[in-house]
Amino acid sequence: MSEVANKLFVIIEPKSNLIEKKIKKNKILHEYFKKVQKAENQLFPEKVIKNLKNTTIYPVSRNKIDFETLKNEKLFLKSSKYIVFGSSIIKDKLYNYLKKKGAINIHMGISPYYRGTDCNFWAIIDKRPQDVGGTIMQLSKKIDAGKILFTSKVSYKKNKFDFMMSSCRRIIDDLKKYLKDNKKKMLFKKNNLKDCVRFSKKKDFNSMIIKKFYKINIKKANLDK
């Protein structure tokens, strides 16, 4: 995003301590997220993130993102575009402000088929690799229910972790290109929630389902189904 912005104001929220403790105590979860981190590091090198001259990083405590915290930050108030990605639930005055400003949400999953958490993981579990990707949508009170701007899918990768994480890189790159090329009003289409295949929650993600994930063999031919 720093490549298409004059100034970038990034609000960073840390991961949940409870989830971090759970991962450390569980060998299967720990190994799974090590593989996720490896794939992430290859696509989003940390050294690049640290050297962004036009970027201001604004850390906040977990679940403490609210309008009162941000109302005196000039870069936040003067922004021309507002993008939400992987935050805790946004509500009350901050939600109303962002909605008024036309905020968009980066959803890791193909809408309307997958809503909730870890959507690309569940698309593989459901043997629907054609639904691994990302969606740019309007911010909404209901989870992943906003109107859709566009979706992005990725080409086949044998390594399932690279496959999932490359969808994250792809949707961000596509959004960057969209913001650079489109100066007109964004045109959204209806999000047909009745077509949802799965609405996943954190509690659904456990050691047993990870073991199942490892056993699934995604072939290139599966993407054409």
List the helices and strands and how they pair.
Elements: E1 8-12, H1 17-25, H2 27-43, H3 46-49, E2 55-59, H4 67-70, H5 74-77, E3 83-85, H6 92-100, E4 104-107, E5 114-116, H7 119-125, E6 133-138, E7 148-153, H8 160-181, E8 198-200, H9 207-215
Parallel strand pairs: 1-2, 3-4, 5-8
Antiparallel strand pairs: 4-6, 6-7
Helix pairs in contact: 1-2, 2-8
How would you sum up this structure, described in words?
- The chain is an alpha/beta fold and 225 residues long.
- The chain has one domain (27-51, 82-224): Rossmann fold (3-Layer(aba) Sandwich).
- The chain is 38% helix and 16% strand.
- The protein has nine helices and eight strands.
- It has helices at 17-25, 27-43, 46-49, 67-70, 74-77, 92-100, 119-125, 160-181, 207-215; strands at 8-12, 55-59, 83-85, 104-107, 114-116, 133-138, 148-153, 198-200.
- The strands form three sheets. It has a four-stranded mixed beta sheet with strand order 3-4-6-7, covered by helices on one side. Strands 1-2 form a two-stranded parallel ribbon.
- β3, α6 (92-100) and β4 (104-107) form a beta-alpha-beta unit.
- The chain is globular and about 50 Å long.
- The mean pLDDT is 89.
Shape: globular
Instruction: Please count the helical segments.
Output: 9
Strand content: 15-25%
The radius of gyration over CA amounts to 18 Å
List keywords for this structure.
225 residues, alpha/beta, Rossmann fold, four-stranded mixed beta sheet, two-stranded parallel sheet, 9 helices, 38% helix, globular
Could you give a quick summary of the protein structure above?
Helices cover 38% and strands 16% of the residues.
